Amino acid sequence: MKKGIIIILMAVVAFTACQNKTKNAEKISAENKPASKIWTMEQASQWGAENGWLRGCNFNPSTAINQLETWQAESFDTETIDRELGWAEEIGMNCMRVYLHHVAWQVDKDGFKDRMKQYLNIAEKHGIKTIFVFFDDCWNATYKAGKQPEPKPGVHNSGWVRDPGDLLYEDSTLVDTLEIYVKDILTAFKDDKRIVIWDLYNEPGNSGYGNRSMPLLKKVFAWGWEVRPAQPLSAGVWNLSLSDLNKFQVENSDIITYHNYEGPEKHQATIDSLKTIGRPMVCTEYMARRNNSYFQNIMPILKKENVGAINWGLVAGKSNTKYAWDEPIADGSEPPLWFHEIFHPDGKPYSQEEVDLIKSLTKE
């Protein structure tokens, strides 16, 4: 989904590894890592043991172009969600990562939470746990409630929207709304065992924001700590150059999450670096065929290392993420190689070989 090239090198590890050493723990400020709020290593390990190997997809139904079309009352599509999660269940997936959006909540707070419950009921029926994502710095900067745009032919994620995007810098009162939103959702679902992770902020600093995203990143963790749900709080590292953000993310996450769309050698290097932190790990985005990130060469590594494997995309649809990030096809014709996704809209696999491989790995 994203354009950042993800290599987590030893510069990050040099910082994060020291978090495990008692002599350095005392140096961490209360602002950044209050011991009473962040999980202990024992709590994190227990979560890992209870949940086992997570594997699944970033999921929005094929009939939704973005987060708003997924969650707004007029376009919430339980029939498609049920059908497509059924296909995921058939190949042994047990976890979906699903993006929320504050505008859908703002328009209809109770209805939004009810639709989240409906989604969770459907997912549970298929044996699927959920990672919910709050904020996101990727793709379109502006958005509005109501009918969403139609896809631009052949353009990857043409209608995906950030949250909160540029509006955060234009409306000084928005942060108050966002605080109420995050705390309301976390409080409502803080003990729901069907939710396996709260992903507080997707790719902070993307879209050229850089460290401008730091204040909101710090705030959303602080809001999460105030509620302190039973599930872990995390924000995945994704770009080495954002060193300040990376440092805060790994320092303050209950479990370690990350993105990597590269080939097996570089992905293994990322795992080797991050696992020195000693906390359970989940790769919350991978699999971009053009980039030599396939199910065949990455998913076996993730299983061997007991790293959660959440690829981008389940069913090809309005998000257009079967097309590559920077290779639009103006007439909307079929790309020679799908970038993401596993299934056609009718449930036919893009690659039977891939599906067979996934099934072989997900057998318990």
From TrEMBL:
The keyword Cell wall biogenesis/degradation is assigned to this record: no
Alphabetical list of InterPro entries matching this protein: GH (IPR017853), Glyco_hydro_5 (IPR001547)
Gene Ontology terms for molecular function: hydrolase activity, hydrolyzing O-glycosyl compounds
Pfam family of the protein (one): Cellulase
This protein's UniProt keywords: Glycosidase, Hydrolase
Domain of life: Bacteria
GO-annotated biological processes: polysaccharide catabolic process
Coiled-coil boundaries: none
Protein name: Cellulase family glycosylhydrolase
Species per Swiss-Prot/TrEMBL record: Plebeiibacterium marinum
Biological classification of the source: Bacteria, Pseudomonadati, Bacteroidota, Bacteroidia, Marinilabiliales
